[in-house]
């Protein structure tokens, strides 16, 4: 366990107990199990609420990369990759690049690969979209791994229409709002936009 992860866990425990006025019981709580409970509850609540919104509106608020994003936002909320700046910018890049590659390869009206299986055109579009998304995230210094899944979701035909991209990004915003509220309630200083102070040891200069 890294020093930064351990620090987040201890900060999480302290914040939760402070909110519950149970500071004196802090020595009885294992930070690991508190974080397990925190991640389990908040990931379920976040995705559950977005699923309800998607059900009521019948719009594309729910998509696979939200799961990976939810885990990141509650497991390492103080990392730069979990910040709203990285998440929103990277998913926007992934969605726009994915839709552009889908259009460039003439696949907007084609059924998704889940229906007809993989073909050469979709394979080429997916390769181009993931390569460009990874390159742009690196160039703009907004790494956010779940965005790689987002660009594939779009390119492989699961969200081929432009209006679906709008709802995809609204789903991202909703999850970020929930992450901000839940992390702040737990005493974790989740950023409004960008995390300025973080462990950058594993990031490229």
TrEMBL record:
Record bears the keyword Membrane: yes
Keyword Membrane: yes
Keyword vocabulary terms for this entry: Membrane, Transmembrane, Transmembrane helix
Transmembrane segments: 33-55, 61-78, 90-108, 152-181
Pfam families for this protein: TM_HPP (PF04982)
InterPro entries: HPP, TM_HPP
HPP transmembrane region domain boundaries: 32-191
Name assigned to this protein: CBS-domain-containing membrane protein
Lineage start: Bacteria, Pseudomonadati, Pseudomonadota, Gammaproteobacteria, Methylohalomonadales
